[in-house]
Amino acid sequence: LACSHHHCAFPLNRNELCIWNTAAAQPLHLSGHHYSISAVSFGSKPNPLLVCSASRERVIVWSLDECTQKVQEGLTPQGIVIGTLLGMVLHVRFSPDDQQVSVCAGNRIYMLSAKNEAILAELDGHLAPVTAAEFCTSEKSMLVSVSEDRTFKARKVWNYSTGQLIYQSGVLTAFPLLSLLIDEENKQIITGCAEGQLWIFSLISSHNYRCIAHINLKKEQEKFCNKVWKSGKKIGSTGQNTSKLCKTNMRPEGSVETSLPVLLIEHCDFLICFHNEENISSALNTNYFWIGSTTGLLIINLSNFELEGFLSYRDYSDLSIQFVGSCAITRKAVNGKVLCLITSMFEDMIAVLEVNLAALVRTQQTDFLLSRNKKSLSVIARYRITLNVFFPLRVKSMVKDQPLVFHNKIKSSGYTAAPQMTIFSPNNNLKKKEVSKWKTTCKQKNKEYPLESYPPIKYEKEISVTCKPTPICCIQYSGDGEMLACGLADKAVLIFNSNLTNTYNVFAGHDGAVNSVGWSHDKKWLVSASEDRTLRVWSVCKNEPALILGKEKFLKTVRFAQFYFIDAFILLCCGSEFHLLSFHLDTTKDDLKRYKQRSVCKLVQKFPMASTMEITSLSAVNDFYSYIVLTAGSNRALEVFDLNAGCSTAVIPEAHTRPVYQICQNKGSSFSTQQPEAYNLFMTTAAGDGIKLWDLRTLR
Predict the structure, then answer these.
(1) Of 72, 73, 49, whose CA–CA distance to 62 is shortest?
(2) In this structure, are residues 532 and 548 in contact, taking their beta carbons and an 8 Å threshold?
(3) Fewest CB within 10 A of the end CB: N or C in the chain?
(4) Vertex 407, ends 403 and 413: CA angle to 5°?
(5) What is the C-alpha to C-alpha distance for residues 207 and 228, in angstroms, rounded to an integer?
């Protein structure tokens, strides 16, 4: 099957080609094949519009304008036979200039001239029948093919006589690859197999055809249907589309689970869904594509690899085709609608569907978009913070030293004046000079970093923090960028100045590797967490800790710790929960109890993360007032906590294919001014699964 703008091409009576003009509602019958037509394709250029049809015995190119004119004159239209006796043809495709045609017959690809019968090149190398081949317009004379041998190959076709193999992939799956699409804008290869798996590879030369993403369509479909069903239930929606979608997703107990073979991959004109809306700017930077399967059509967002819409053939009672054997869809929408041509897997039936793309997406997404917009999350506090779960830590009042006063005169001891000789005078000037020197060297005026400039990529300096090879477990700049703290695996915490010229301070005391370090907002304190199940708060100017929380406080290792709410609290994660601590720091010493710390700390509340064994990452903003805390667990989920309400507000299941080990928020900067909406963005990363950029307002 093939679709192009206002035309649909499909075989009629097996060996007759029918061109259906949807605008004029008139069929055009083209005869010339003796065996069943197995492949059809439209040309790349709209004028003149060409059609190529292939069967076992011949490959024919038709010009629709010439054929239509001959039919009007009462003559029999004829095409140009460009190939004969090539074998069973599974796929044909025109080159971008419509001068050549690639024909996938058996294990080989034949490059044929579209003007006459001539074989320009014969490409082999696949071990099984070739199922699809596409031309790459960004790379001249480049052809990519997929096969039932479960591999794809990229070739350069030079002079159409020899084909040089550029790259050959390994076996991707246990199922044959059926479809192929080249995204020229993003320079990516998208291929799908018979089990409902999608692979996306990069075409950028320096990437060496590496895999960017792997999508399981069945899981994405289940996730999308559950999301629509939950949102509809939350806001009380009983719409027909939601109920149909849920019924489609629910599989009766004991039934056979069917796969989702990827029969088609095509570009989707998704911008029509955002016409005259505020969020059209986000759609302009995103590509979408159709996935045609045996049971329905799916719309995939290429930016986040999520499902945007799903059309099930079972939901339409007037459609007699329930299982599709082949499908084709138009790339561009006409009047907000796209044409979809499907054929039955078990019967000789063909149907033409007119899909209203905007209506399809809005009926499925309006429910959960409305439910999110009612209580949209924001990192910046939008209303008065009640702090109903917070309470200040009360510090015991201590008797201050008072001057001694004698109310009666004391007789003189014999001295008429104070002794003039100085017995001992401590040398305090050295320390003052060192501190003043540090302040003068690091005191710099924060200049506004121009947003239109490129990010800093120039290599500046490299230093070795220790004599022996020691892993650096964590690193963090202070808020003003003047100092840099790093935690090492040898139990030490180091502080450098921003240009890495010298070491300002070294903190020692942990009995295990330092997992995290965090600066206070005023840059006077540093909090560190270690594998020894302790947490320490250090004064930047001293070598001794101001506060120590020992092993008796925590049952498991403290993975992360930071100051929170502009140094009012400390956040730390331990096991499957994170703790909120209030504290008071006092570095003064009692002469009688020198080894007893006067700093105190108290637990405010524990917040458990649902259905996880351990919190792998935690993030919150300390530079301004924010009640949002982001956590990631070993169950690969993200969870958003609202500490103003004292509970969890949102869960994003399966955020990555592996547990997230780092959450990076936009916490503001002293060197740039940003829009308030920019602070709602955060990034996550997992081993082997890349980096994802999220929006807290939409949780996508």
Answers:
(1) 49
(2) no
(3) C
(4) 85
(5) 37
Rounded distance between C-alpha atoms, residue 395 and residue 599, angstroms: 9
**3-state SS class at 691:** strand
* SS3 state of residue 513: coil
Residue length, the chain? 700
- pLDDT tens-digit readout, 106-145: 999 999 999 999 999 999 889 999 999 999 888 778 899 9
The two beta strands, 307-312 and 324-329, are unpaired
Q: List, as own/partner pairs, every contact residues 162-165 make where C-beta atoms lie below 8 angstroms and the sequence separation is at least 24, other chains included.
A: 162/121, 163/111, 163/121, 163/122, 163/123, 165/125
Per-residue confidence (pLDDT) for residue 390, from 0 to 100: 45
Tell me which CATH homologous superfamily contains domain 1-171: YVTN repeat-like/Quinoprotein amine dehydrogenase (2.130.10.10)
- 472-588+596-699 and 1-171 share a CATH fold: yes
* Cβ-contact 508, 491 below 8 angstroms: yes
Is the four-CA dihedral 365, 367, 370, 372 of positive or negative sign? negative
> What DSSP character marks residue 687?
T
* Radius of gyration, CA atoms only, the chain: 35
Under DSSP, the state recorded for 555 is S
- What tokens does 400 get? 């201050």
Q: With residue 668 as reference, give the H or E element that holds it.
A: none
Helix H or strand E segment including 368: helix 357-374
| Cβ(130)–Cβ(147) below 8 Å | yes
Could you tell me how far CA 229 lies from the centroid of its own chain? Answer: 23
| DSSP H or E run through 661 | strand 660-665
**Burial level of 41, CB count in 10 A (0-12/13-18/19+)?**
buried
Please choose, from the candidates 272, 306, 268, the residue with its C-alpha nearest in 3D space to the C-alpha of residue 287.
268
Q: What share of the chain is helix, strand, coil (3-state, %, to 5)?
A: 15, 40, 45
Residue 285 has what pLDDT? Answer: 64
HSE value, Cβ hemisphere, 13 Å, CA-based, for 334: 12
Where do the domains of the chain lie? 1-171, 217-230+257-273+286-366+378-387, 472-588+596-699
Alpha-carbon distances of 369 from 231, 365, 374, 501, 681, rounded to whole Å? 8, 6, 9, 52, 18
CB 526 within 8 Å of CB 520: yes
Q: Which residue has the tokens 């995204």?
A: 183
Q: Which helix (H) or strand (E) holds 551?
A: none
pTM of the model: 0.72
DSSP code for 227: H
- Asked if 559 contacts 574 with a C-beta cutoff of 8 angstroms, the reply is yes
Half-sphere exposure of 530 (CA within 13 A, CB side): 26
- Per cent of the chain over pLDDT 70 is 82
Tokens 């909120």, residue?
580
How far is Cα of residue 565 from the mean position of the Cα atoms in its chain? Answer: 28
How far the first Cα of the chain sits from its last, in Å, is 35
Cα distance between residue 661 and residue 617, in whole Å: 5
List the single range of 202-211, 389-398, 537-546 with lowest mean pLDDT.
389-398
671 vs 64, higher pLDDT: 64
Which CATH number is associated with domain 472-588+596-699? 2.130.10.10
- CA–CA distance from 583 to each of 399, 513, 599 (Å)? 21, 24, 8
